[in-house]
Design brief:
Length: 478
Amino acid sequence: MTTIVDAFADAVAAYGDRPALIDGSGKPISFEGLSALSERLAAHYAARGISAGDRVLLAMPVGVSLYASLAALWRLGAVVVFPEPALGLKGLRHAARVTTPKAFIGEGWYRLLGWFVPELRRLPLCLAPKPEVWTGESQREQVSKAKPNDPALISFTSGFTGAPKAIVRSHGFLMAQHRAIAPMLDPGGDGARDLVAFPVFVLVCLALGVTSVLPHWRLSKPHRVTAQALHAQIKRDRVTRLLVPPTLVETLSGAQTLPKLDAVFTGGGPVFPDALARLASLQPTLQIVAVYGSTEAEPIAHLEFGSVMPEDLNAMRNGGGLLAGRPVDAVDVQLRDGEILVAGDHVNESYLDTAQNHETKVTDGGRVWHRTGDAGRFDEQGRLWLLGRHAARVGEINPFAVETAARFWPGAERSALIGLKGQPVLAISGDARHLGDWQSAAARLGVADVRHVRAIPLDRRHRSKTDYVVLKRLIAGA
């Protein structure tokens, strides 16, 4: 297998009648059905003028049409432009400006954007999957196969620490990412049904022959999902594993019960041990895996919570940072001045705008390393510990050294360390009656100023990372 299209074709041959996707209505489509649909869409798009190398911006709800269109465009050798959903209309317009696509494909109300958004209205083609496409005849002779070095996907960083950067992934890159993730996700048998809140992981599941259940909720609003709603979808769609952001792990861990599951995989933001411990207490046999990575390099490391020892928890309580686990086999990790740098076949080496490379790319001996912006350390077992954003360090104090410890303090819900006038300030949301306890505990970690806040502002992508810029503004203006 040289491309993700080849991997999907192999899965179709092996698991043809198995459900590939189950959408929000609970209706499944088989691997064969999804393949046939993508073939018809490819013929339809080719007839409308899309060919190899063309950039096509997709704006669709997360559903069968989205993944069928992805497969169809990749069959044609087209390059899919995928805006960052959390940035909404602003992100879509940014994606159109920086990638200058030939076509826009929308579905449902997204179709209207082609008429009202100036950057889309100027495009040569504005398309949608037509009703007749779903039942038409496949025309396989009109489709071609992409090559490993051909560009496949342009996606974007979150824009959380600056303007969103466009990342070009080739077919070979997607396959390398598949090889890095697959050992972690391969269930090793039949019957797995994964509720997947990360679009790239759906691609891995499709290539592995695993059924993907698509979320009922908007991916940019996971914090609005209740435990009751999540339990209902797990039971209705007979989900056996979850692939969800940390905010949903916290939602589940706060419930009284948990539906029977085989595993929970989480990432996209810091995954703190208290939430994992609460989740494990609800179902002691549950496999829980926290994945560390970034948009440019996913995955970097992973940690199975069952391997966390009492001494690890004690280190996290006492300022040791957040344990991320061992780096995956497919990536090389090094520390430079305390910052985590990574290199590998599934690590992005350049942005679409190469002028942005100087911010995060380092060339050493002909090899490109990506600067994650995260501070870290290795322990004597070769495991990676996260210390927070490298630039967010205040004096000698790393954010996660204090923030992870605070998760163990009575009444504390969420915390964030910022610097004001060069001095560390710890903001904590939770039960303010424990403010005295927090001040005493923080003082032992070198922080004298502790403030209670109603809520810690979070990122828009997964609602799992602290928005330090907004928090600093709130604290300074208080």
